[in-house]
Input
Amino acid sequence: MSSEFKELIRKGDELLNRLDALPDSEAKSLAFGLLKALDAIHRRSLGRLIEELKQREGVAMIKQLAEDESVAALLEMYDLLPLDEKARAEKALETVLEYIHSHDGRLEVLGVEDGMVSLRLSGSCLTCPGSALTLNLMVESALREHMPGFKGMHIEDPSGQRTTIMARAQQAKWIPIAAADSVAPGTMRAFEVAGASVLLCNLGGKFYAYANACPGTDRPLHAGQLVQAIIFCPWHNCRFDVRTGARLMGMAGSGDLKALPISLEDGQIKLSVS
Output
């Protein structure tokens, strides 16, 4: 990318930051409203132009034009850069890689056929119920948002076993609950989310979330301790594995911790709610 084009992008980012810092909320709201309207006009017009070119067998022309960095940047900005289905899925899933890598996981797109995306998932995240639930929701959300016609996923584990998950009727909703640096490694904190108490734990930079109650009771766990990988209940001396929520001792038969799906994106921890 040329230095001139980089400078234009930098200048645009600088102006947006200055606009966002304006004390006049009404003026700021009007300005962002205008930008949103212009974005919608450009998106619709460019989308129509690209669609017409595709229908007239102009895909090769689009790819040739996209060799120019400024054209490629514009098309990519509006998700119009011509990609095959596999490449489109890989690009869509870039947003979930931060969380996957934070749990020592790996995700590979194997292919796309008739709206079904085939994936291979491996790593330690497979053994954690909360991480597995989170991954399914995050991956589905990313594919639904960026892949028109998405129907579901075939997920293959390292042993070759395949699980099919069809797209849910409704998109998952992710709510920011805390900055990642607000929960120090080796600690846990409670947060109120949509009227429920959530226990957020940080084990060596890997985050886990559970319903903030000792199973079988309504007693909160955040007043207890996180020692290495074990959560100690302050009320009953129950102990749980922070990585899986599994009960290790105490109050036999009252169950494991309820894992909650969270994601890590741009330093923010988000919780999926129905």
